[in-house]
Amino acid sequence: MSELDTYLTLDGQAFIAPQYSIWLDARRKADWSCPDYVVLDFRHKHVVVVEETKAFRPEKLIGKVIGRGEQWYSRLSAFLVRQNVVSEDWHIRCLLVMRSDIIEKYKSQLKDQLDVSFLTLEDCSFPWKFHDRRMQEGIQGNESVSAKTVGEWASNSEY
Prior knowledge:
- The protein has 6 helices and 7 strands.
- By secondary structure, the chain is α/β, with parallel strands linked by helices.
């Protein structure tokens, strides 16, 4: 189990699916995208798409984050609602886990994206740094959710 796995599941209120395949369409013939984790946060009724990177220049990942509605949210929401995994009133959001030496640049670049939150690799690598805060507040960014519910994202999907 990685440090990020431990961080995400610490309070026993989250289910994680690592390297989760988001299919191009309902026939499941081809992968569309494969985020590092999809987390079901039962404590806050959030679906959290988590991407972790150690890259110094994660521009390709940032491009996916900018297009996250099409890249992840709509297809994933449609699938989760159709399979009765979550209800339509859940919210969806994105958590980026990245190096502390570059995080401020990308926070600034994505500052208007209210459903995107950030966590440093270092802050989730050492349990003594995050344990108490994580147990009290939940997964980083739980106040940052998409204005649309999972049901709204699902209804906009051709999936």
